[in-house]
Design goal:
With about 150 residues, the protein is mainly α. Helices cover about 50% and strands about 5% of the residues. A hairpin with a 5-residue loop joins β1 and β2. The chain has a domain of about 80 residues: Multidrug-efflux Transporter Regulator, Chain: A, Domain 2, CATH 1.10.1660.10. The longest helix has about 35 residues.
């Protein structure tokens, strides 16, 4: 049962609403994602804006963004009020750039992968992934990445 909105949400209420474990919410708190206030009894109380912040984090993590990047995007936003549409738009623009760069890198990898499979990882002369322009030839003969000794 939720507490009165003037008192904020308990950590249990927030867990119920987001589907996150209480421990996960505390973890996100340590990373500056949510900023609860403490009531007179010392219990955490969260605002409705924390629902949005946690939902955003969950969606961004599903897209593969590391928590440090997500926290960095949220850090300049006001801690105890809901981010504005402009705030979300600015964050989304940065994420779109990152996603576009990932797509481009994956497409490039996909194009080079055919050549990699064709070389069987033994002909480093032809490998576009690990040996573009046959730079490994200067290191000696054979599969240099596989025969390298660790010091």
């Amino acid at each position: 049962m939720a507490v009165k909105s003037s008192q904020g949400l308990t950590i249990g209420d927030l867990a119920d609403r987001t589907g996150l474990a209480v421990s996960a919410i505390r973890f996100y708190e340590t990373h500056g994602i949510v900023h609860p206030v403490r009531n007179a009894g010392g219990h955490r109380r969260y605002g409705r804006h924390d629902l949005r912040r946690l939902s955003f984090v969950m969606a961004a993590q599903r897209l593969g963004f590391p928590l440090a990047d997500i926290a960095a995007h949220l850090a300049p936003l006001p801690a105890h009020k809901a981010p504005t549409k402009a705030d979300w738009s600015r964050i989304a623009k940065g994420f779109r750039r990152d996603i576009a760069a990932r797509i481009a890198a994956l497409e490039e990898l996909g194009e080079k992968l055919d050549g990699c499979i064709g070389c069987g990882c033994l002909s480093l002369k032809a490998c576009q992934l690990y040996n573009p322009d046959d730079a490994k030839a200067a290191e000696g003969t054979g599969p240099r990445n596989l025969t390298r000794t660790v010091s």
